Amino acid sequence: MKDLIAYCGLDCEKCDARKATIQDDDTLRREVAKLWSELNGVEITAEMIHCTGCRVPGAKTPYCDGLCPIRACAREKGYATCGDCPACADCPTLGMVTANNPEARSNLKS
């Protein structure tokens, strides 16, 4: 599995937060912060948009680093991704992502 597939199956290579970090693009950081603030109903600042990817060394957004229940669970259990977990198909926590993202579920199966 590619290192840039997150624990939940999302493809970090497609993530605008990662793109902004890799490209050091402050305009994209502001755009991501604005969108994520609107989607999540909390204030997210451009300064928070620093991430190299969920499962690779380097910077993480505050949510991914310490608040994401999916990442915390997989790391605690020692799984490379949630695809390694026998409860993957029925996990309500993982379902927060995969229910509306068939690509993430497919990434976990490969």
Question: What distance separates the N and C termini?
Answer: 7 Å
According to DSSP, the number of beta strands is: 0
Report the biggest beta sheet as strand number plus sense, adding barrel if it closes.
Answer: none
Radius of gyration using CA atoms only: 14 Å
**Approximate helicity band:** 40-55%
Low-confidence stretches: none
- Category by helix and strand content: mainly alpha
**Gross morphology:** globular
How many helix segments? 6
Residue-averaged pLDDT, rounded?
Answer: 94
Order of helices and strands: HHHHHH
- Percent strand equals under 5%
Oligomer: single chain
Summarize, please.
The protein has 110 residues and is mostly helical. The protein has six helices and no strands. It is globular, with a radius of gyration of 14 Å.
Topology (SSEs and partners):
Blueprint: H1 16-23, H2 26-40, H3 62-67, H4 69-77, H5 92-98, H6 102-109
Helix pairs in contact: 1-2
Verbal overview:
Helix 1 (16-23) runs antiparallel to helix 2 (26-40). The protein has helices spanning 16-23, 26-40, 62-67, 69-77, 92-98, 102-109. With 110 residues, it is mainly α. The protein is built from six helices and no strands.
